[in-house]
């Protein structure tokens, strides 16, 4: 008998109190409509805005088998948030995404269908192919994102159109293996994960997504992060 697929969503949060209920509602709708089994793992880094209180209310509303809160004691960064959350994933597939509506749950059904089409190891959302795109960013942020992708693509040639995006579907075993090899912790993490996955021979497919800038709150991307990213690309170039 075929094993029914289950999708574990890893959702890192930092001050997402206002976004969390709606994103959870949309996820529930998407998975219910598509008749897919799922769980949501919220990795909150001691957000001062009360994100965890909201998460607990959601556990009460949707049930503890659907929504799980796996908090950490402080703001330890995105990369390690995925590593932390992954330990608790019970699905055979893992989806990583942002909590601020930049990644709309409606794209998940396309990612799931794409994965099944070619038994792909990874399906990544792309803003830079097909009818994908970015909305709500100023020119500077668009330039930084495009530049970051162009730079990594030129130096490392992974052949994936969106290296820094973080809306992705992985086979859990593949994510575990790639994450084990990945060294960077911050924004560089997504790019390194993809470069390593391609280097390890995993099959990657892309689904165009529209990335809409967050509704509430602020991005945590700063100047330091951009320097770290450039260093990360060059480090990989030396190693891979
Ligand atoms: N647990 C935890 N969550 C965090 C942390 N920093 C950010 N987050 C959460 O991670 C998600 C993304 O953070 P944002 O601050 O909204 O990132 P962004 O600037 O919009 O960046 C997005 O685009 C980048 C470039 O395309 C991506 O590289 C990045 O991963 C993200 O998708 C959000 O759900 C946010 O709450 C942290 O230290 N800890
Ligand atoms: Mg964001």
From TrEMBL:
Enzyme class: transferase
Entry's EC annotation: 2.4.1.83
Alphabetic keyword roster: Glycosyltransferase, Transferase
Entry protein name: Dolichol-P-mannose synthesis
Organism, scientific name: Zalaria obscura
Lineage summary: Eukaryota, Fungi, Dikarya, Ascomycota, Pezizomycotina
């Amino acid at each position: 008998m075929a094993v029914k697929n289950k999708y574990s969503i890893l959702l890192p949060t930092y001050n997402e109190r206002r976004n969390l209920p709606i994103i959870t509602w949309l996820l529930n709708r998407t998975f219910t409509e598509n008749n897919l089994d799922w769980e949501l793992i919220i990795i909150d880094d001691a957000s001062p805005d009360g994100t965890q209180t909201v998460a607990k209310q959601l556990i009460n509303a949707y049930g503890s088998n659907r929504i799980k809160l796996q908090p950490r004691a402080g703001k330890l960064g995105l990369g390690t948030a995925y590593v932390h959350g992954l330990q608790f994933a019970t699905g055979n597939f893992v989806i990583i995404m942002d909590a601020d509506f930049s990644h709309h749950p409606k794209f998940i059904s396309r990612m799931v269908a794409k994965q099944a089409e070619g038994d792909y190891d990874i399906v990544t959302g792309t803003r830079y192919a097909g009818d994908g795109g970015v909305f709500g960013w100023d020119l500077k942020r668009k330039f930084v994102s495009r530049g970051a992708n162009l730079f990594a693509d030129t130096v490392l040639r992974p052949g994936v159109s969106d290296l820094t995006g973080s809306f992705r579907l992985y086979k859990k075993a593949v994510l575990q293996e790639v994450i084990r090899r990945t060294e960077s912790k911050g924004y560089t993490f997504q790019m390194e994960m993809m470069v390593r996955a391609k280097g390890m021979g995993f099959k990657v497919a892309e689904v165009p997504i529209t990335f809409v800038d967050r509704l509430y709150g602020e991005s945590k991307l700063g100047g330091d992060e951009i320097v770290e990213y450039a260093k990360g690309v060059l480090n990989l170039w030396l190693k891979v």
